[in-house]
Amino acid sequence: AISMLMVFYSFLILTENKKKIIGMSSLFITGIFLANFLFGLGVKTFYDAFAGNRIVLYCLYGAAIAMCITAVILNTIDIINSKKNIAAKNQLPDRIKYFLGNVLQGSVFSRFAIVVALFVGFLVGVVELACTGQIYFPTLTYMIQSTNYGVESILLLIAYNIMFVLPLIVITVIAGVMKEPERIKNKIMSKNWLIKLIANIFFAIMIFILIRQIINV
Question: Is the Cα torsion angle 70, 72, 73, 74 positive or negative in sign?
Fold first, then answer.
């Protein structure tokens, strides 16, 4: 998400229009927020509909655990290969990244750029669920099951996704001051192995928690 944001911002800088940069960046991030929030809402709705069905719950927990295990394996391979200049396994395919890059570039120079930014942010959010969903889905599975009230679940969903886009907001501000989005992106990506290591710790904790949840179903 950070990488795509910096690609988008690098195109925005070419417009040299400060209001447009602020407006489009804000709507782009809002689109990502909406995509993730609606995905969470969909999972919650599914859970509520089948809350009394043990088989469905077992499948839900099983999918979350399988996702965690797969992510740990891929992240571990990437951590080992991080110093060997080998392409990461746990990332979006290049063809999808190129597609998103072209969409981002086209949106900046669109006639309806401000409105398009919201849609493009939403599109990026949906596509990147293949990556961000690795943490989001297991968290959702535990969070929804652990809350007693619908309102509480919604508030937690909102809080989660605010925290998800908060780094994007901070990095956008930093990029606005430094005007070097590519440098910021490369700096963050150089620490990718550390991000994957922290993610693996999270996945290990979630696997333990979700197994306990299955036992208690």
Answer: positive
